[in-house]
Amino acid sequence: MFKAVLLEKPESGFQATVKPVDEANLPVGDVLLRVEHSTLNYKDGLAITNKGPVVRSWPMVAGIDGAGTVIESRHAVWKVGDRVIHNGLGVGEARWGCLAQRASLQGDGLVALPAAFSTAQAMAIGTAGYTAMLCVLALERHGLKPGDGEVLVTGATGGVGSVAVALLGKLGYRVTAATGKAAEADYLRALGASAVIDRAELSVAAKPLQKERWAAVVDAVGSHTLVNALAQTRYGGVVAACGLAQGADLPATVMPFILRGVTLAGIDSVMAPIAARRHAWERLASDLDLAKLAAITEEVPLESAIARAQDLMQGNVRGRIVVKIGA
């Protein structure tokens, strides 16, 4: 038996509890992981609170991310004792996840834990931070340089936004952070933001083309916020879109694309190929300031994961929550 955050949907209704689970019920996999740390991403919050159609098979062990030590392996690459990271790939959705003491995983989806990180630090990054790195890499592939102008980060106090601000700040970019939490301005400046704006400036319907401002954008919000970010992006700029905190709709026009040559780069972290995952984690190991990572991180025990997931969905979380799993 092992402890896990188990999501169930009996006839009486949805339930999320921390309880013992029989190891015999783990899905078939070629690597058995002793999970040391997991984390709470937005998708985990949706699943644990049942506020979105994340879970596709019941019952489900939550947790799309995990980091720990291999204790059994039938995979050619991984051996007992290896330290690894798992992100996404349907875990916590269609396959039992990592908010648990044990996880049975497919070895092809694992990445070696960089020597620069502990398992707790890797989960402070998690899918949110790894997604932020994929966004930065997309901006770089477009040719963006630190001297090109301001970079907007929306949803800046969230997991993706906080790591994106820290990464871009360390890389020398002038970062403008958009947030609805005015009290967090000092926090965002400490991470690397040069300026902080109210998200209300971006969150309502406005003109399809507006004054050119941003050389690039990292957007984790979607809906009108993404539309306004596109409308304010400078000629030839690039917008990396990775989230839908405001909504999945995109009530936009083609004007930014056909009149200003703006590029909208979609960022998928869930099913990204293994080479992209390795590259992102290599860059995180070299480009992320660990002191700033510590400043955005809160650690909680497994027993507190459900309550903090509820807080996350209510907008009462800043940065990243690491879940310490225990033996």
List the helices and strands and how they pair.
Elements: E1 2-8, E2 15-21, E3 31-40, H1 42-49, E4 60-61, E5 65-73, E6 83-87, E7 102-105, E8 111-112, H2 119-141, E9 150-153, H3 159-170, E10 174-179, H4 185-191, E11 193-198, E12 214-219, H5 223-232, E13 233-241, H6 255-260, E14 263-266, H7 274-287, H8 290-295, E15 297-301, H9 305-313, E16 320-324
Parallel strand pairs: 9-10, 9-12, 10-11, 12-13, 13-14, 15-16
Antiparallel strand pairs: 1-2, 1-4, 3-5, 3-7, 3-16, 5-6, 6-8
Descriptive key words:
single chain, 327 residues, alpha/beta, Quinone Oxidoreductase, Chain A, domain 1, Rossmann fold, 2 domains, 7-stranded mixed β-sheet, 6-stranded parallel β-sheet, 16 strands, globular
Question: Could you explain the architecture of this structure?
Answer:
By secondary structure, the chain is α/β, with parallel strands linked by helices. The protein folds into 2 domains: 2-113 and 296-324, Alpha-Beta Complex (Quinone Oxidoreductase, Chain A, domain 1); 127-266, NAD(P)-binding Rossmann-like Domain (Rossmann fold). It has helices spanning 42-49, 119-141, 159-170, 185-191, 223-232, 255-260, 274-287, 290-295, 305-313; strands at 2-8, 15-21, 31-40, 60-61, 65-73, 83-87, 102-105, 111-112, 150-153, 174-179, 193-198, 214-219, 233-241, 263-266, 297-301, 320-324. The strands form 3 sheets. Strands 3, 5, 6, 7, 8, 15 and 16 form a 7-stranded mixed sheet that branches. A 6-stranded parallel sheet has the order 11-10-9-12-13-14, with helices on both faces. The mean pLDDT is 96.
